[in-house]
Amino acid sequence: APLPGKRLSVSGVGKRFGGVSALTDVTFEARPGQVVALIGPNGSGKTTLLNVISGFYRADSGEVRLGDETISGRSPHRVADAGVMRTFQTPVVPEMTVRDAVATARYRSDRVSMVETMLRLPRYWAVVRRDREAVDAVLAACGLTDVASLPATSLPLGTRRVLELARALVVDPSLVLLDEVASGLDEEEVQALADVVRAVRDAGGTVLLVEHNFSLVRDLADHVVVLSQGRLVAEGDSESISRHPEVLHHYLGE
Ligand code: ADP
To answer: Where is each ABC transporter domain found (predicted)?
Structure first.
């Protein structure tokens, strides 16, 4: 099913913490159907930028737009309502089945009130029926159908990461933010995750990926943005970026 990916525009974003400039005048775009990778050494501002985009931090200058809307200055909740979905380095999956973990992610938008849910009113069941198809489709697209009734916590780490991605995808996100999703995974698990991210991109999703694993970046990213000390120091396709001195130094050990 096509995803309603929107263009992410980060324009002149700056963010300071006391005397530290975590981000200085950062400008780039990510388009629907594109995977953009954000790379840079520790402390270069990647996490701060994700926090600005998702509304956890307020930028001191510049703006973040999603399609035609300005999302900078909104609360995290309202940024999520605009369709910005983030997966975390440490996935938070409660003790529930894989299917329920995906289904509950879909209910986060307040289409059904807590009272309706508790009282199992008709509107609740209408939403459940409508959402069941969406949940099944995402489980299938992520290769999770066979494990749908297992407890989420019983899955190997790689599959739990795919589940986190499935929970982001089930709300039809306009932008998916992936934070170090490959860390700790073996090569086979990384490839399985990369396949899902490619499917998201090919379905028209907009993906912004913070990633240390440069071979995954090379594999997956259509466009690479390099941060160093809070500034954008290079951008381009992964081929040209892999020849950049900063990247050679920090990622390829040269
Ligand atoms: P990265 O994710 O690339 O490792 P960060 O965005 O975490 O980089 O950090 C960028 C800079 O901002 C660092 O110098 C870091 O110490 C500083 N920083 C990040 N978050 C905070 C914070 N909440 N308070 C103070 N300084 C911070």
So the answer is: 8-254
Q: How far apart are CA 119 and CA 114, in angstroms?
A: 9
The rounded distance, in Å, linking the Cα atoms of 134 and 138 is 6
Task: Classify the C-alpha dihedral 84-88-94-99 as positive or negative.
Answer: positive
Give the integer Cα–Cα distance in Å for 211 and 20: 23
Token pair of 116, please?
């309706």
Q: pLDDT per residue over 50-69, tens digit each?
A: 999 999 999 999 999 999 99
Q: 65 and 11 in contact (C-beta within 8 Å)?
A: yes
Mutation probe of ligand 1 site: the residue of 13, 15, 17 with most atoms within 8 A of C-beta: 17
Q: In this predicted model, what pLDDT tens digit does every residue of 234-245 receive, in sequence order?
A: 999 998 998 888
SS3 223: strand
Please count the other Cβ atoms lying within 10 Å of the Cβ belonging to residue 175: 28
Q: What is residue 137's predicted lDDT score, i.e. its pLDDT?
A: 93
Q: Which residue of 20, 53, 56, 209 sits with most ligand 1 atoms within 8 Å of its CB, as the best mutation to test the pocket? A: 20
Whole-prediction pTM = 0.89
